[in-house]
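User: Can you help me understand a structure? I only have the sequence.
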Amino acid sequence: MHDIRFIRENPETFDAGMAKLGLSSVSSDILALDAARREKIAAAETALAERNAASKEVGAAKARGDEAEFERLRALVGEKKAEIARLEDEAKTEDSRLRDMLAGLPNLPHDDVPEGADENDNVEIRRWGEPRAFDFDPKEHYELAAVQDGMDFETAAKLAGSRFVLMSGAVARVHRALAQFMLDTHTSEHGLTEVNGPVMVREEMMFGTGQLPKFGEDSYLLREGWWLIPTSEVTLTNIVNDCIVEESYLPRRYTAHSLCFRSEAGSAGKDTSGMLRQHQFEKVEMVSITHPDESLEEHARMTRCAETILEKLGLPYRTVVLCTGDMGFGARKTHDIEVWLPGQNTYREISSVSVCGDFQARRMNARFRPTGGGKPEFVHTLNGSGLAVGRCLIAVLENGQQADGSVLLPQVLHQWLGGKTRITAEGALE
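Assistant: Let's start by predicting it. Here is the structure, written out as tokens:
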């Protein structure tokens, strides 16, 4: 949600930010609604003052026996009361229209975000690790002999339809080990607090983090009115929904491993093979709630948290800053981390780390009380994958594949696998 006062004082700057996102100028429409709303409010206040003045005179007219003046004033009070109700209703209508307009507009990009139309204009800022040189043609994860029994798409399709997978045996255990490794690393080394929260949330929570109203088709609405979370960013960020916390409370750093649900609307024909793009998946999420002065520094810190997971696993990756045309709705700046997948011979996204400024905080009314006193201020929020567990599993399988169809597993995972080091070509963990 945008600050209407900022738009009043900086309409050109606001329109310039929207232009970077490929959107037309909207400040004039916003300010016209704002002016109409304020005009109705001012008129209602004037009518209220007139009604109050007439009300005081009614008694005096009655006391002096001036029946004509008494009736005139009484009628005026009734007229003003009706006028006030009408103006207040009109002001509420204009306010609702203004809020709907502001709620549908994306966040403004930071000044240092590169301008561009799509992912081809993203800017790489660093790489880590060298992609392995294979002496055979590497396969995609679902083609490996080691996973043929443990990654069952046909049974999953029978159970739930397309874009689901049934994992079992060694594959399921490695998937679980990855999530536990990520959580333990974030909590013991990165200072995040582990949270286990709901995966069904109220509509207000989805609005607070920006999934609603514009992107409702991307998520699942249950008949009872709950929404299935597309990411535990929704749960973790909304911990401070409608709260005023003390400045000393900040920063708050959370992590959660959860099921996530996405309809994948608009992705027909994309990544239909394997488990790269699923309706149900697991992710270890990171969320930070910070002081406004610290959010950019926190963005860099969170990016390193996600990169560290890949480095510990020995998985080559690259980090890019998204251009204006590829950023998400609520982000002011985003780093995408892309892991190397030898089966596809390319880098694929495994984490997006975004700083949202006060955009989500305004939607949630999440504020902090400055230590030195003064009015409460909006917090800044950040979120990022640390990491997508399924995609991490894909990367581990493809980068560790051997010519005989077996998979060597990263050393850092051995302790979560009871000392097991590989998945055999027959699908056994040994």
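Now, to help you interpret it: DSSP finds eleven helices and 18 strands in the chain. The mean pLDDT is 94. Let me know which part you'd like to focus on.
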